């Protein structure tokens, strides 16, 4: 590589290298300032003499001295420039004169513009040297015209503070910059003084030690995409199923962007033709207008023929590629698999194919872009071949990458609901690495073994090098005296390669985003990137992310560069936190939480967690004795948010990874941990590390202990460790078993033979699994201490006894003889619970629904459990008898409730559908199998519907469900309040109106900030609970709300 240098004299001394050598006829990239405003830039020729050596020099009153000696390149080429600013006599006129010296070039031009105070865009001065033109003009060739030529620039605008420029060698199409920055000439001495002391507006914001962050409210970082107006934004008005042999057709009548629309979907595998027409009355057939028929349809005289085709209906009953509840954009994934062989030729081919498929992915919605992400991720982690027998230039890869990322950039602008997925795709695009082999070889003092080790780690072998179109036969054979020079040149070359291959590389990303208000922050970041203490670095990284966030949410012309910069800043935060994990203090959690919020598109819940944690730190500073308890609540909310995000990723990405992985032959272990690796490589991983470290500390300060005991039972059993309770819920254990489960969601059944379930998860104490544990006399507890859980897991297969107290569990290894005594028939009789049975109800009324009247019962009794789904559909299609409607209206109005039908027929239909959904919930799978497990006759289970007005009260969850004044229809069966078996939660309660989910911010809530209010409310709840238990004579499961300081009880039942 040839290196040309430019030196600026005195206080402006600097060195520049060529930015790029371009192919003829293709313009090189502009300098940073020129990129900001290409229209506001000028090209002025430096007309040079015919001699072999020319000088560029300018005299100046405030020049500090001549430039140092000129560095020489291997070709003998050298540059030198001294710059002077000379005030002329005409008032504000300032004159700048440049005299050029050069060797071997006859076509130099100055690419320049002026900067005004407070603006970063270049402006065009009214006075310009002869021959000046805009860069968009054709570049004429220039003849040599003298041995010592100069160029004069006159500035008569007092608002202009400085001139920026780069030098262009037009004959070779090379651009020379000042260490990847523009050269800058200050026009006034005061400005020079400012420049020397780095007193720009941004620089004043930080000292040499750390930056001073802006005082901004967390909600200024809120990102909550508005509902999209594409096919995902629709309101389903009616939904019906029709039988098609053993399969079904789903018919949806929906409203989309103000237009009525009908969609049909089927799980019938063979090709189908729909013969259809319009009708105003039964039996009528009219051909539809040509403008509304599906593509490829055939219009007949009185009807239309339309073919079914594979498609993805996001969020609807049938998905393209749905298998076992797993949804994928199957057609897109199969297209990717078909094109993979061509994509393996090179990264250029892969990126071009990805660009071609982007539109199809967008049309498939979130699942389509998820499929594209999976493919790019497989590529980035080298599960797919990067280059097979094909030589390609970095420039060609860059062009293909630009084409693909330009499309992603446009999708980022137009589809904000997909931004998070698009970010992940862009972070996976173009990761290079082969050039590292030569670097490692040089750094190892020319150890050829190191060279091949690096290549092999990146999947490159001798055979692969020989298989290229232009085979590589030889390995490097260099002399030690060549090492330093080659290292310098190769470092510069690798920097250029990173700009092509690694969009998320921090240094190259910063280089492409000069000119923004975060520029000085980014300089601070690069200066402190290797600091051992990382807190100041992380603060600067986050401040930079916060500064560019408004630009990411806008439509900047350089949006792609900003996205890559934001990805790089995010990655650097994670790296810094992980390398200094043990040294970080409690305040670091706020920084890491903020970083995750800045990387998450719908981040309102995370920002509420951030506000809560900051408030907890403030409480600690003020010596509030409740701070640790409140901090623990914020930590639990944050952990729940991470779990929710992880489940979201698993639901959207894992099915695509499994299907595409099977098509491409990706190793199974890679597919199995695909979503896990996505999470580990993201911002959530470093946050999870800090949460795990702080949790036991806060529990200790708040005196919470290491356990939350949901069902306290003394047990003896053999330890078995599992990943998820869900995966073993249908299993039957032959011996008493203590399950240590990493994940418990709350909706699972407890397997037969299990005497204890221990988990780090925190299911609600009223969740299904919690109720089942209490019913079945199973020890159920959450353990918050990772060391205790690890110890229990290492007891795999051992027999242990466990004894719970109010706040702790003691356990020890137990001898077989003790187990035999505990499991003797006498001991079992002492612990046995009451037998459970249902008595068949005799209904004198007119509206009871009996399964005996349905032919589906026979199928169910024969073990065809698909009949449960058919049963629910049959109930949902019931039509209300007129007499039932009349009687229900009278009863509701007699109780002072509003009658839905008074607001129109549609409101009554909503209420009627809610009633049917409660009835149908008798036949849900979980309830059916739960009653079978305890040997209850499901035929005897009778479902009534309780009608209640909704009371809007005090929320208590991270996400609040809010609804207008409405009615809720609740299950009230004879299987919900049995002694020893609480069926609450098995059946549905359905509000007439859809709830609105609202993320709740408790940082200004009087329950948190007003100690007297908190004590009053909690004391009232305690007194109410005591009074109810005294009334019924036993512990109670109580539900209620607090509204306007009053407590409303909506339900109480014996605590099982």
TrEMBL record:
Domain Alpha-glucan water dikinase phosphohistidine-like as annotated: residue spans: 706-818
GO molecular function, one term: ATP binding
Pfam family, one: Ig_N_CWD1
Claim: Transferase is one of the keywords in the record: yes
Cellular localization per UniProt: Plastid, Chloroplast
Listed Gene3D superfamilies: ATP-grasp fold, A domain, ATP-grasp fold, B domain
Entry annotated with the keyword Nucleotide-binding: yes
First-listed, main subcellular location of the protein, grouped into a coarse class: plastid
Enzyme Commission number(s): 2.7.9.4
Cofactor(s) required, per the database record: Mg(2+)
Alpha-glucan water dikinase-like N-terminal Ig-like domain span: 80-187, 250-311
Keyword annotations: ATP-binding, Carbohydrate metabolism, Chloroplast, Kinase, Magnesium, Metal-binding, Nucleotide-binding, Plastid, Transferase, Transit peptide
Gene Ontology cellular component terms for the protein in this record: chloroplast
Assembly description: Homodimer.
PANTHER family reported for this sequence: ALPHA-GLUCAN WATER DIKINASE 1, CHLOROPLASTIC-RELATED, PYRUVATE PHOSPHATE DIKINASE AMP_ATP-BINDING DOMAIN-CONTAINING PROTEIN
Family classification: Belongs to the PEP-utilizing enzyme family.
Name of this chain's protein: alpha-glucan, water dikinase
Lineage: Eukaryota, Viridiplantae, Streptophyta, Embryophyta, Tracheophyta
